[in-house]
Amino acid sequence: MTRLSDYLAGAGLVPVEILRSALARQAVYGGALDTALLEIGALDEGRLWQALGAATGLPLPAPEVYETPIRFETPAGPMVQLDETWSERWRAIPLRQDNGSVAVLCGEPVARAELEMAATALDVPVTLFVAPEVRLAALRQAVYGRPMPARLVQLFARVAGAQPVRR
User: What SS3 state is found at 139?
Assistant: First the structure.
């Protein structure tokens, strides 16, 4: 089991049988455990965000960070490029923030060491936040123009409402 499943079981938020069903769904369809939990209705999105935060120890981003994302442009020269390929590989989306730090929204499990190495290589402070896979896919579409998989579009429409999908 992952940290998220351990947290959910330990906190009594999701029965073990439901977690097993979600893990089986994840094994068949791929993606993150949080996606499978949303798909089977084990948690609503708000509770899932809270559980992800508790399981990873990361804060949740303010809604304006993910609802109106501003792409972070990697400075010229560094060996590390925080582009679509990097984003997909490390399940993270770097977004520009006004406070001089880069907001990095991360999926669970969080690739902390890799994210910290990228920040060090770029000499840019980062603030890590946790987000469900479906929100990361929506951000990847908004920031990089990469279309969301149909499975996640349907889930996003259900959890966020149809209006954000049309943007």
Answer: helix
Instruction: Give how far the C-alpha of residue 7 lies from the chain's centroid of Cα atoms, to the nearest Å.
Output: 17
Residues in CB range of 36: below 8 A, 6 or more apart: 22, 23, 25, 26, 29
Stated pTM of the model: 0.90
Each residue of 117-134: pLDDT tens digit? 888 888 888 999 999 999
Q: Was domain 63-166 assigned CATH 3.30.300.160?
A: yes
For 42-76, write each residue's pLDDT tens digit. 999 999 999 999 999 999 999 988 988 988 877 77
Please list, in sequence order, all residues whose beta carbon lies within 8 angstroms of the beta carbon of residue 149, skipping any fewer than 6 positions away. Answer: 137
Indicate the average pLDDT of the chain.
89
Of 46, 5, 44, which is closest to residue 22 (Cα–Cα)?
5
CB 91 within 8 A of CB 111: yes
Residue type, 37: L
Distance CA 107, CA 81 (A): 19
What is the SS3 assignment for 92? strand
DSSP state of 86: H
Residue 37, token pair as written in the block: 């939990």
